[in-house]
Each structure stands twice: as structure tokens, then as C-alpha cells.
Amino acid sequence: MSVGLEHYLIVSAALFSLGLLGVIMRRNLLVIYMSLELMLNAANLALVAFSRFNNNLDGQLMVFFIITVAAAEVAVGLALIVALYRKRQSAHVEDLVSMKL
Amino acid sequence: MTLEALPWLILFLPLLAAVAITLFFQKDEERSANFSIGAVWIGFALSAALLFFTAGKAPLETAVNWLDVGGLKADIGLRVDSLSLLMLLVVTGVGGLIHIYSRGYMHGDAGFSRFFASLSLFTFSMLGIVLANNLLMMFIFWELVGVSSYLLIGFWFEKPSAADAAKKAFLTNRIGDFGFLLGIILVWATLGSLHFGELETALKNNPQALGALATTAGLLLFCGAVGKSAQFPRHVGLPDAMEGPTPVSALIHAATMVAAGVFMLCRIFFILNVPGSMALEVIAWIGGFTALLAALMAVQQNDIKRILAYSTLSQLGYMVMAIGLTAPGAAMFHLTTHAFFKALLFLGAGSVIHTLHHEQDIWRMGGLKTKLPVTYLTFLIGTLALCGVWPLSGFYSKDSILAAAAEHNIALFILGVTVAALTTFYMARLFLVAFLGPAKSDAAEHAHESPSVMTVPLRLLAVPSAIAGFFGLEAFLEKFFHPAEAGHATSFLETIFAPFNHSPLAAFFGLFAVLLGGSCAFSLYWNATRDVLPEKIGLLSRAMRNRFYFDELYEWFIARIQEALATFTDAFDRWIVMGLVRLTHGSVELTGRALRLLQTGNLQTYTFLFAAGVVALLYFVLH
Fold first, then answer.
1. What is the ipTM of this complex?
2. Cβ separation of B603 and A96 shorter than 8 Å?
3. B interface mutation test: which of A18, A20, A81, A98 has the most B CBs within 10 A?
4. Domain CATH for A66
5. What is the pLDDT of residue B488?
6. Which domain, by its residues, includes A90?
7. How many domains does one find in chain A?
8. How would residue A72 be classed by pLDDT, with cut points 50, 70 and 90?
């Protein structure tokens, strides 16, 4: 059995759903963050797969950009989480509701 | 240096002086006075040079483009012709003498430098009006003149009466200026230009260009003059403006600013004088009425400056009447001679007030003939000139107005002669009571002559007051307004007697009025220590003293009608406008409150809803 585009896409969709679930369900900010990364990489996988099967390098180019931006985003996001933790002594979303009136 | 640079220099030197004084020399009184006086005298010298170099040539125009928006093209442009040259010389010449005089009069005042800065600012604005070559620029300087006159009237702002007077003068001016602005817009909308030269050509080519709006445009523009030259019904501001220092009264409210209205009417005479326009008729009657009203008011005033102020009003009425009688040349002629002798009279009054320690009631003066010989003599010359005694300047200019009246409108002629008689009466009353007769107060007993920095300007002003009448001014102006019938040279003697030749009726009636007014005043006030006139004419005298209750009438008008209007608009604003506003903000707030319930503050709820939304969207899009 040869591995086709569908297989990649199914894996990608599964990863994406897992990530989304994690973002929605988990309470720890760090885990939510990891789940977010998972979603990003699911998208990356889909892009690379499309790129490979369509003989077009645009998708891979896009992936490089996403990885770069994701790295920068992680740096900022983790710093925010650390700062938040220092201030609140907690990284759980239940404790972070001060945006509510 | 080209000739074009001269008017710019004349215009901007006083501004430079004002800026320099305000920024650098506030503490240095000597230097600030020198700067201010220097700027205006250099202006005078340059104006004289301009007169010399441009004599017999076409008007000089120089302009810098300022605005060019769509159809509106506005220049900052200067126009030097006979009219503006004459005004330039009057403003810088008479103004210069008053500047020098102020140095003595304001000596020791805490705001000495500020005074000179304001004087220079005023001179700058006035020169701007004179030199402007388009209506927009004239309007800008028109407003500037209003501001600087506000600053000067309210110079002693710690006195409530002065602060009030400044406000009153500014507001009465503003009301007129509003009409002026409407007039300018109307002219621009119908003729498409603001430039005097272009307007004149446009109206010459097509006198009907303004169409049915000719009267409206003329009267709206006249509104500006009504405000500035204090014509009825906006005449109430000027006498109160006497709260300012006396040199200010002389400069602004006698010689220059109030003349701006008359000057402006002469400048735009071609707009007023189009066939089918009723504007001139109205202008003539308003001028005549103001002249009569103000002369009557002057008869029963006791404050020396107020008498002169009402007299100024009355003479301005004369000039406006002359314009209405299609004799702008006569109006400008009277404006010039009036600038000389009225400045002289005000400065003389200032000299008296100064030496009597700010006493302004003529019934507390008297016996000043020997104590103030220079002031006495120059004041006498000024009085005679104002009354129109032959051969002093006032006679000639008044005669040319009366001659115009005799020619065009016999009712206004009679009115003019009456005013002339009244003028002589109140001026003789002022002179007899204030200078002659016994001294009526301690201060008057011990009076002594003012310093020479004040008397020299008096002497210098007395000369043109006496001789300006037969100095060729009239011919100069005639040539400007009627270039077609260019004058024939006349001999000196012929000029002196000219009025008796070409309008004997006006000349003799004028002199008759002087005799009549003078003899009445003599019989009543020779050696008088109190005013006996109230006993003779009773109620009328009270009405005159109270200025015919115009101020009260205005007050009533404001208290009743304006107040009612204000209450109405207030209610409208409170209930209708604010109701609408409340409705809007109330409904928005209510919606907001409802929507706020959706905000849980839990990020994951939002994410879940967001994801659910995406799923729903995908479902609908893909199916």
C-alpha cells in the first residue's frame, strides 16, 4: 500500500483535533501552549504534504516561515507565562479570570 | 532696492517693533518707546518717499500669493495709490506725533512698554487696512485693528470700567464685522474675485454684474463701516472707549481707526455706486442721522473727552453722509483734516487732564488760558478748525460736504447746517468753560504747562489743522476719484477763496451756522460757573445728557428679548437636543449591558465557541 496524500491529511487532521481539544480542555497554561504548537505543526504537516504531492515548493516555503514565527512566538509566550506565574503563583486558567468584569 | 519693497517695509516695521518690545524689551522702557516711535516715523519717511516716487504714475501693486484653493485666490497684496498714500501719511504722521506725545503722557506708568507694543501692533494693523489690495486681506487687518483697539482701550484693565468698555467696543465692532464678512462673501460669490482692481474692472464692464443683490452687498459691506466708524445704531461703543489712555483716544478713536470705516467705503465706492443700488441713499441718511444725534448728545456732556468723542461720532457721520452723497473725495478730505484737528483736540484735552491730575469734568476746569498757553492756543486752533471757521482746514472740508449735500439732497443739506451750528455750540461751550472764565477747582488754580514732549506734538499738529484746507488736498483727491476731469491749476489765493466761488450757498450757510452756534454758546457760557441750559430746555437736556437713553434701550432689549430667546434656546437644547443624545446613549448602553453577560472571562470558553463556530461554518460552506 502506498502512502497517499489522504494519509498525511488524516494524520494532520488528527493532530489538529488533538491540539484543539488540548487547548479547550486542559487547565494548565503550559499544556495549552504545547497543544497550540501541536495545532501549528498539524498545519505544517498538511502544507508540506500538499507541497510534495503537487510538485510545488510554495507550501514548504510557507512552513519555514511558520516555524520561524512559531519559535519567536514561543519565546514571547513562555516569557509571558513565566511573568504571569511570578505574579500570580499559578499557571492555571481558572485563576486567571480578571478580564471578566 | 526696488520701489515694491517700500510698502512692505512700511507695513512690517511696526510689527517688528511690537514683537521686539514684547519679546526682549519689556523692562527697558527707553528702548521700547524708541523702537515704537522709530518704526512709525521711518514709515512716515518711506511713505513720503513713495509719494514722491510714484507721483503721476499708475498705482503700484505688489503681491505674494497666499491661498489658491479652487476658485478662491487670495493674495497678501499691497496697493499704493493716491487714496492709500494719503491714509499712509495720515496714519504714520498723526500717529507718529501721538507716539511721541504718549511718551510724555504715559511716563511712569507700570505698563509703559506694553503700551508701546500695543500702539505698534495697532499701527501695523491700520497700515494693513490702508495698503490691502483685496477684501480678504483688508478683513484680516480689520479684525486685527479690533483686537489692538481692545488691548488699548482695556489698557488699564484693572479698572472694571475700562475692562467693560474694551469688551463693549470689541463686541460692537464684531457685530459690524460679521456683516462685513457676509458682504465680502456675497461679492466673491457673485463677482468671483476679491481683488479691488479686478472688481472695479468687472463692475465697469458690466454695472449690472451684482444684479438684484447690489443693494444687499453694499449695505452688508457698509455694516463693517458702521461697526468701525461707530455709526448709528452701533454708536454706543465709541464714547465708552474713552476709558483708554488719552493718546489712545486721539490715535484710535479720533484720527485713524474710526476713519477706517470711511476709508473702506471710499475703497469700495465702485461697489456702492452701481446703478440700481439703494445702498448710497441709506448710507447718506444713516450718516446724517448719526451726525445730528451725536451732536445733540455732545451738547450736554460734561466730561471733556466724552464731548470730543461725541463730536468725533458726529464728524464721522458727516463723512459717511458725504460718501452717501456720492462725494467720496469730500469724505476723504474731511477725514484727513479731521484726523489733524481731532488728534490735536484730544492731545490738548490730554494735556489738560494730565496737568489737572486726571480731572475730566469741564466744570472743574477754567482759567487755563494763562497757565497753559501752548495748550490753550493749539486747542483754540483745533476748535476753530472743527467748527469750520474760515480759513482753517475744517471749513474747506466741511464746505465740500455741504456743497455735495446742496447739490444732491436739500434735506441733508439742512441737516448738515444744523449739525455745523450744534458743533460750534458744543465746542464753544467746551472751550469757554474749560479754558476761560474763573478757575473752578483747586487743581485748576495750580495748573502748569505740560512738558515739551507733549506740547511739541500739539504745535506740530496745529499747523496742518490750520492750513490743510488749501494745500491741494482736495485737488489731489478729486484727481483720484474723477480722473477724467483732471484739475486745472489754480493760484494760491484762488484756492483759499474757492468755496465762495463754486458753492457760495454752502459756504455762507456754513459760516452762518458757525456764527449762530458760537453766539448762542457765548451768551450762555461766557464766564459761567454752572450749566444754565438744563433750566431752559428741561427734558430735552436730560435726554441729551443720557444719550437719548440708547444704552438703556439696548440694555432693555438684551434683558428682555435676548433673554427670552436665550431661555427658549436653552430649553430647546435641554429637552430636544439633549433628549436625542440621551436616547442614543441610553439605547447603546442597554445593549452593551445585555451583551456583557456573554463575557465569562474564561479563555477556554471563547476558544470552544470559536472552534464550534469554525465547525459550523465549515459545515455550511461544504454542504
1. 0.80
2. yes
3. A20
4. 1.10.287.3510
5. 53
6. 5-99
7. 1
8. very high
